[in-house]
Amino acid sequence: MDWVEHARMHAKHRGHEAMHAEMVLILIATLVVAQLLLVQWKQRHPRSYNMVTLFQMWVVPLYFTVKLHWWRFLLIWILFSAVTAFVTFRATRKPLVQTTPRLVYKWFLLIYKISYATGIVGYMAVMFTLFGLNLLFKIKPEDAMDFGISLLFYGLYYGVLERDFAEMCADYMASTIGFYSESGMPTKHLSDSVCAVCGQQIFVDVSEEGIIENTYRLSCNHVFHEFCIRGWCIVGKKQTCPYCKEKVDLKRMFSNPWERPHVMYGQLLDWLRYLVAWQPVIIGLVQGINYILGLE
User: What GO terms describe the biological role, i.e. biological process, of this protein (predicted)?
Assistant: First the structure.
């Protein structure tokens, strides 16, 4: 019966080679043009690009969740959105409450670590299934693969989402505190004993070992709470000094080899943003062009 269905499929599509080639060309051309436009948009108007991308990252999966009845994902999405909305609200208030920067970075760092661990477990589950190790635990291949792919998706999706929200909050808070502005000079002078990320006093000297956290000095000689500057660089996606905008040497900052995967994972999330936010839009655009041209 399989060869009969195969023959019917070939008979149905016989003579459509030219149309299929045209559809492939439309797909390639649309991908190239869309990529060029997105790059130009990001370079010329980064704030609007980031806001639109964040909105799509947040809303597009919701559409598929409701349509496909993924209620577990919907529940987690609602919980994440509720807490993140509260944290974002706190980060955008003026005047900024002194405890807010710590609250923001702790929340997004927590989500970052959970997404990182979830993604690793999901990837390992997929690899174990491909190598047949799931049979040792008497787990069906389809169940093991579904479990791994689900965890991988959760980890990557919320990892991307929290980094975008964290970047937005970091900009708002730093600008409100006054030691950082996206363009122009800082509105306040930075004292040697004040952290430019959170605006709080630094009590531990750079050469001393702190009980809770250490103090870190960048190559530009500005000092920060270690927790703040790590949150600024990894979670907030900033690679410049919060005060003078000198480029931060991440390799020097994260000299411990166990910490470097966090930097690489962050770069992976930035790349995946395009797939989650813009790929469905581009595919929909391609389908619309094919429909207008009468291609099926």
Answer: ERAD pathway
Q: How many angstroms separate the CA atoms of 84 and 16, rounded?
A: 50
7: CB partners within 8 A, 6+ apart: none
pTM over the 0.70 mark: no
What sign for the dihedral angle of Cα 80, 271, 217, 184?
negative
Predicted confidence band of residue 79 (pLDDT cuts 50, 70, 90): very high
Contact 231, 105 (CB under 8 A): yes
Distance of CA 38 to the CA centre of its chain: 17
Query: What distance lies between CA 161 and its chain's CA centroid?
Result: 5
Residue range 264-282: mean pLDDT, rounded: 69
Distance separating alpha carbons of residues 166 and 174, to the nearest angstrom = 12
Q: What is the structure's pLDDT at 257? A: 46
β-bridge mates for residue 247, sequence order:
240
- The span from the CA of 87 to the CA of 210, in Å, is 27
**HEC per residue, 160-185:** HHHHHHHHHHHHHHHHHHCCCCCCCC
Q: Greatest CA span in the chain, whole angstroms?
A: 80
Q: What is the mean pLDDT of residues 266-271?
A: 65
**C-alpha distance from residue 273 to each of 57, 163, 187, 247, 296 (Å):** 8, 10, 33, 24, 29
Q: What pLDDT is attached to residue 251?
A: 59
Flag whether pLDDT at 242 surpasses 60. Answer: yes
In the 3-class helix/strand/coil scheme, how is 61-86 assigned residue by residue?
HHHHHHHHCCHHHHHHHHHHHHHHHH
Do the Cβ atoms of 147 and 43 come closer than 8 Å?
A: no
Q: What is the pLDDT of residue 216?
A: 79
The CA-atom distances, in angstroms, between 40 and each of 1, 36, 49, 202 are 52, 6, 10, 41
